[in-house]
Amino acid sequence: MTVHIRPALDSLPAYAPGRTVPGAIKLASNELSFPTLPAISAAIMEALTGDTNGINRYPDNSAQQLVAALAEHVGVDKSHVIAGCGSVALCQQLVQATCSEGDQVMFGWRSFEAYPIVTQIAGAISQKIPVTSAHTLDLPAMAAAVTPATRLIYICTPNNPTGTVVHRQELTEFLDAVPENVLVVIDEAYGEFDTDPESPDGVQEATHRANVLSLRTLSKAYGLAGLRVGYAVGDPAVITALGKVAIPFAVNTLAQKAALAALAARDELKPRWQQVISERIRVTAALREFGFETPTSQANFVWLPLRERSAEFAAHTEANKVIVRPFQDATGGVRISIGSPAENDAFLEAAKSFAL
Ligand SMILES: *Cc1c(COP(=O)(O)O)cnc(C)c1O
After folding, report:
1. Would the pTM count as exceeding 0.70?
2. For residues 191 and 156, is the Cβ–Cβ distance under 8 A?
């Protein structure tokens, strides 16, 4: 006899570790390719070596100091904020907090690959609404697809992996159309890289509607992917529910200290974001010149909708020591993170020699 495992997990892929190729440039996980700021390292060291509340103690379960700083940062009361072990953990908590078995979770496709996984783990059903031919989320189609079983909708903007954004006006029309008992999550993991003047501000939307929540992270723009800190801004009733389904002590002591230091160092980080943005524009222009189709990205990555040729393209760049992220299927493509100028040059060199 073998141990009974929930059948819902059968079709989930087992975790496959990210590819590491010795000596290769990694442009596969949308990380910031800058060294950690000294002020952030110092805060981590202080938490390790300080003589009170070190790592022999449990972390503050509700991360009160960090939550207060985040609330001040976005301009809301702290009852509207919760921190999580990366915003992907909050994605999982959101499904757990809103869905019973058989309920539905809607998102564009393609969008963030974690959405269908956290949905399936909870025994809920994914509603994948195809993106438009311009690789943007199709908000009218999403509004029309809401059913009585829809509990949660993810709007990822800029969208991972296509890099496209939704605009304020269309989002307002969408939110007006969605029933108020359906939670709409604006996933703004890449918001700091978005320069589109028509982009919405998720926090502002969340402040005006009780069924809207903004999801943000310190993994991307703040360079803390390895420490796992994300946060949600929304109605206190939703924030309280998210706290109930959290893994205990999910945001560890070093992560809380580093996140506080990173928030305080925001002005030092901005030039880095600016470099990512100008490099994104340069990489996009070069790829178009080489003959690739690529939508205008507002994130720290670009998207090549190469569909069934995605794996072939990724193998080609890997042979040239650049690791990118392929999604090999009919709706797929290749996502390339923006790295340092030299890393981007190495990628462009490899892309140029791919036979389209
Ligand atoms: C990277 C990413 C996240 C979350 O990252 P964490 O490291 O878990 O905070 C959330 N949403 C999207 C769309 C992402 O791309």
Report:
1. yes
2. no
pLDDT > 90: what percent of the chain? 92
Architecture in CATH for domain 50-264? 3-Layer(aba) Sandwich (3.40)
- Of all protein residues, the one whose alpha carbon is nearest to atom 1 of ligand 1 is 189
Name the segment(s) of the chain with CATH classification 3.90.1150.10.
7-37+267-352
pLDDT tens, 217-246? 999 999 999 999 999 999 999 999 999 999
Nearest to 238 by CA among 183, 176, 172: 183
Every domain of the chain with CATH number 3.40.640.10 lies at: 50-264
Domain 7-37+267-352's class? Answer: alpha beta
Contact 269, 221 (CB under 8 A): yes
Which ligand 1 atom is the nearest neighbour of the CA of 29? Answer: 1
- Give the angle subtended at the CA of 195 by the CAs of 194 and 196, to the nearest 5°: 100
Closest CA to 263 of 215, 224, 228: 224
Site to substitute for ligand 1 among 31, 66, 70, 88, most atoms within 8 A of C-beta: 88
pLDDT, tens digit, for every residue of 102-121? 999 999 999 999 999 999 99
- Among 54-58, 140-144, 282-286, which stretch is predicted with the lowest mean pLDDT? 54-58
Ligand 1 pocket, Cβ-based, cut-off 6 angstroms? 30, 86-88, 112, 156, 160, 187, 189, 217, 219-220, 225, 230
- The rounded distance, in Å, linking the Cα atoms of 66 and 278 is 31
Provide the phi-psi class of 107: left if phi over 0, else alpha when psi is between -120 and 50, else beta.
beta
Ligand 1 geometric centre to CA of 240 (Å): 21
Return the residue whose CA atom lies nearest to atom 15 of ligand 1.
160
